Amino acid sequence: MRVLVVGSGGREHALAWRLAQSPSVYELFAARGNSGTAGLGINLPLSETDFDGIVAVSTERSIDLVVVGPEVPLALGLSNRLDAGGIPAFGPSRAAAQLESSKSFARSVMDAAGVPGPNYRVFQNVAGALSYVQYHDAPVVVKADGLAAGKGVAMCANREDAQYAIRACMEERAFGDAGETVVIEDWLNGPEVSVFGFTDGENLSPVVAATDYKRIGEGGAGPNTGGMGSYGPPHCWSDELAETIREDFMLPVIRELARRGARYRGALYCGLMLTGAGPRVLEFNCRFGDPETQVIMPRLLSDPAEVMLACATGSLADVEPVLWSNRPAVAVVMVSNGYPGSYQTGYAISGLDDVVDADTLVFHAGARLDDDGETVLTAGGRVLACVGMGDTVQDARHLAYQRADRISFDGAYYRRDIAAEAVNVPVGVG
Ligand code: GLY
What we know:
This protein is 29% helix and 25% strand. The chain is built from 13 helices and 19 strands. It is globular. Bound molecules: glycine. Glycine binds next to loops.
């Protein structure tokens, strides 16, 4: 197969890396990719929303499968455009991607499918939303309905914070049209887990879980980021939980979408909180997570191209069951000084080839090749992820940090506590 990966982050490097190992793949392209994908295939100078360009290049280069990494092109209908051109696409249609692009749509699907989540209310006018929080116990979570580049969720400890978040969304239009509707949810407590499966809209593979770290600072201090690290399997995970989430949470949502005429083909991401009252869904996303993909792709034992093509063509039942390894993996994300605020780019990255152990990987994210075609330069906030794999989380963690400690660029920063809570507890499975 000739495979095109759409996107340019660490998730897409991890997907491309795993696809490049597939015996079914003989040529790999990325649009637009980064310095990591450049070492695996051909980077094409196309943005993820240049649908005309992506369809044209897929036709010209006889691409057999397009794997769409990020949510934005999916929400805008890239899979629909590829379908119309007869090009198999791994990633849901615009209608099915509403599971991520509209929080109120997702909640209505979950309600119809009987999937438990927090109590919530949807508001399309500011007065109603303000009045609700006035008479509702804090804390609450205020969510912009649409896509807001990961910034549309406000955790509000008191009424004032909730009112501020509602006004920012609905009056000041901080997220544009995405904040015209808000969903206000009860605040839940417990460990968070991201769960992923491959689906063709009817069948769902066995699922795999990972934990991510969202805050910039150790111990969860400071502002939210795109993700500072991840590990899996999470220590709070089990085979029983995996089966429950697959059978009672994810498959019912897939079936409800199909009932509504929106067949879901691609990676389904179920964001859970494990509360004292049982698992509750915080969100569904229409893609793999970042930086979770960096720890789940190394654990995928099956042929990724075969599985993704089967999802795209509605034939997942015809391929061998998807297998995941239980071997732990830990990813430590290195970021530019100042991130998630403003930061400088263009610094040379050294130590990328200092491989002390074969059980390590480096996935590039905000990184690009200099004009010499060799030097790798920082080009974003989240620059790269160092991954360690081992028989225990402790071993995997040690290797991830050993690799990170050998890489440097001006202003490099990474958290030191990724997967720390999972050391010395029994390894989760699934
Ligand atoms: N790691 C969270 C996300 O990908 O949305």
